[in-house]
Design brief:
Blueprint: E1 6-10, E2 18-22, H1 32-49, E3 54-58, H2 69-83, E4 94-98, H3 102-114
Parallel strand pairs: 3-4
Antiparallel strand pairs: 1-2
Helix pairs in contact: 1-2, 2-3
């Protein structure tokens, strides 16, 4: 996959029915925040195309891709909020975040509270 692309496959042997694979940009690369936002939107689009009702996002960019946790949370949450602006017909009803430490949980709670979503 090219940077920001996403592809969906069967999730054999997992609790989930499908896995969305994506190529996340490296922190510090040219336009990495824009590319991360595009990656999230491509993942959501892939889920919608398959008529999925929920999708889960791990904290993938702040792992080995090097994004600071707060920056990754801001970009991911903004991308999700912007994706659904003006759309009420999406089959996606639940977005989950897989957060592995209390610091990440705190950051996501803080950043979600800042969102201006109506």
């Amino acid at each position: 996959l090219e940077v920001s692309e996403a592809a969906l496959s069967q999730a054999n042997g997992l609790a989930a029915k499908f896995v969305i694979h994506c190529h996340i940009p490296q922190w510090g690369s040219d336009k990495c925040e824009e590319q991360l936002e595009k990656t999230v939107k491509n993942c959501l689009s892939a889920a919608e195309d398959k008529k999925l009702k929920s999708v889960a996002f791990p904290t993938f960019p702040s792992g080995r891709n090097g994004f600071p946790k707060q920056t990754a949370a801001q970009v991911i949450l903004r991308a999700i909020a912007n994706y659904f602006v003006g759309s009420n017909s999406s089959p996606l009803k639940n977005i989950y975040f897989l957060l592995y430490d209390s610091e990440s949980i705190g950051i996501y709670v803080q950043e979600m509270a800042k969102l201006d979503v109506k």
